[in-house]
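[User] At your convenience, examine this fold.
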Amino acid sequence: MAPAKSADNNFPSPLSALDYHEFSLERAKIGQLLFYDKILSGNRNISCGTCHHPRFGGSDGLSLGIGEGGRGVGPERNAGVGEDKIWKRIPRNASALWNLAAKKFTVLFHDGRVSVSDDYDNNFNSPAEEWLPKGLETVLGTQAIFPMTAQFEMAGNPKENEVAGALHDRIDLVWPILAKRVRTIPEYGDAFISVFPDVSQSDQVTIAHIGEALAAYIALEFESRDSPFDAFLAGDKDKLSRSQKRGMDLFYGSAGCASCHSGPLLTDQKFYALAIPPFGPGRTRRFDPYARDVGRMGETDRLEDAYRFRTPSLRNVALTAPYGHNGAYSRLEDIIIHHFNPIKALKKWQKKSANLPSATWLESTDFVILEDRMEMERYQSKIDISPATLKDDDVSDLVAFMHALTGDTAQNLRFGVPDTVPSGLTVDK
């Protein structure tokens, strides 16, 4: 861990409205419907809200998600049956969506594959590179359009639908198909005309408009800055319990947590190797011969970035279990303990700790990384934190502080889940 620091004068400033990009409420109303509308998936059977559901803190409660082909929502979601069953688990844990409209968020996803950048003369670095659609205004709107292009998340399997077929040819061929689906539904077409000044008729609606509507919804729905910790930062020193205050002092002091979980969003947005127990298919590169996840290196091709993942924000973290880029730990206590001695925790970790819905046809690959001696040696050689001593009381106090990061509105959201959506497709409740 980082050298010990005094907690005095080391706290961030309270979050305020000025820390966020402005988003239109009217756009957000369209985005809410689109977020829960399965029309944006290849087979019309999964929505953004399926894996980022308010009931589970904006996530799904699973270690690795069950995407296209699965049934149900949250921890009860299953891998499907028959020809419709999933072909592959989602390689990584479904990220929570809290505060993604904050101005300081310029890098998104576990490996940072979407970021603010001029590398391709379109304002953003993304998997689409120079093929990114024109008209996207925000990094949040940009990231919102990519799950639609992922075979095992929302697109579906080859030969199943026109979206998956187009994806097989080139990523940018997917979005016009989805945009046409949306704009030809009169309720959506009329809504875009009334809200977007550059849309005077429905056939002008593009994926960029859809992405920015989704961004507006995510921005306003998942803004959270009214936790007990926020009240403390604003001057209400009695808002935290004794245990929470001790945990806060550890966090900003001798435990060194704030060296990475810094600033008002509790993340420095940088990438670190922590030796979180690896499993699942991983997000492999094209030339990887087997399942593994090299993290940031998969985006940068720099060896020094191997097995590094982005520091997550800790706001509302108590609502977003399981933890780690692959959801290896179901309890806050366990992910905290891991940080203080990664190798010891890795060796003690058991497969049953992973919340993986049963899929017998995938069992042979679920833990192949853990069983690969050479890969595990490489994995353990890249750790960015050093072992430190932590008492049982320290762990419980740090957990208490984590609970002080839960906002009041996070449990009573502004919009919620709509009863119906314009496509008429079912809504996951």
